């Protein structure tokens, strides 16, 4: 199975190609997503010796995350998928963040600004892929849902921004924190391979960002 994966949910722009489970990837920082992502895709497909028509699906980080970044990622995924007549696999950015952390239980947090975090608790299954526990949400650090049990690992820039408040909230259930962890196209490719096998695909026009914050979605509807 050949899958192209994109992530533009944070300040890092990353692209990956999974060819029968072997993953090639590239990433750049600097919020130049719109300027760089298509050239990164072209270069990586050339390195893998693939054309768009030889792909089975295109996966992208559907959010939550940077409002502008998510729009870019969804738009590029839609455009490439339309052109090559491919299905699209939307993957949670929080799940991609958790997937990249070598731990059985991960509390993924992205900085949502306005003194809030995008939050999700994930457990790793026997196949090595993370699965959501409960629901993803946006909340203040003092109000994030408490995870069941102990031995949780905190990950992501939400912990860098609001680490003390989150640690106070989670307490003894937290083992350690990796605030530098970020979502990546490599992790999206890993999760997308399983998603495709389970039929979790959508048509290109259904590949839309998930913001979690209702007022952002409302503004998009009016735009």
From the spread of the alpha carbons, the general shape counts as globular
Roughly what fraction of the amino acids lie in strands?
A: 25-35%
Rg, please? Answer: 17 Å
Strand order of the largest sheet: 3-2-1-4-5
Total of DSSP H or I helical runs spanning 4+ residues: 6
Question: Which runs of at least 5 residues are low in confidence (pLDDT < 50)?
Answer: 215-223
Largest sheet: 5 strands, mixed
Summed over residues and divided by their number, the pLDDT gives a mean of 94
Q: Report how far apart the termini are.
A: 38 Å
Helix-strand string: EEEHEHEHEEEEHEHH
Q: Could you state the oligomeric state of the chains shown? A: single chain
The percent of residues in helical segments reads 25-40%
- What structural class is derived from the secondary structure elements? alpha/beta
Structure report:
By secondary structure, the chain is α/β, with parallel strands linked by helices. Helix content is 35%, strand content 32%. The chain has six helices and ten strands. The strands form two sheets. It has a five-stranded mixed beta sheet, with helices on both faces. Strand 9, helix 4 and strand 10 form a beta-alpha-beta unit. Helix 1 crosses helix 2 and helix 3 packs across helix 5. It starts with a strand and ends with a helix. The C terminus is likely disordered.
């Amino acid at each position: 199975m050949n899958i192209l994966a994109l992530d533009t949910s944070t300040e890092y722009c990353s692209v990956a190609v999974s060819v029968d489970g072997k993953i090639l990837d590239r990433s750049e920082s600097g919020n130049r997503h719109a300027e760089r992502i298509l050239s990164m895709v072209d270069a990586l497909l050339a390195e893998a010796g693939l054309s768009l028509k030889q792909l089975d699906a295109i996966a992208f980080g559907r959010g939550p995350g940077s409002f502008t970044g998510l729009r870019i990622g969804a738009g590029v995924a839609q455009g490439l998928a339309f052109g090559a007549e491919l299905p699209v696999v939307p993957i949670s950015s929080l799940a991609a963040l958790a997937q990249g952390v070598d731990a059985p239980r991960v509390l993924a947090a992205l900085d949502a600004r306005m003194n809030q975090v995008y939050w999700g608790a994930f457990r790793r299954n026997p196949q090595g892929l993370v699965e959501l526990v409960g629901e993803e949400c946006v909340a203040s650090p003092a109000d994030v849902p408490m995870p069941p049990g102990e031995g949780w690992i905190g990950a992501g820039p939400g912990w860098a921004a609001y680490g003390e408040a989150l640690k106070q909230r989670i307490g003894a259930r937290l083992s350690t924190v990796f605030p530098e962890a970020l979502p990546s196209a490599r992790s999206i490719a890993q999760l997308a391979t399983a998603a495709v096998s389970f039929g979790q695909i959508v048509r290109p026009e259904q590949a839309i960002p998930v913001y979690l914050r209702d007022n952002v979605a409302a503004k998009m509807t009016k735009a």
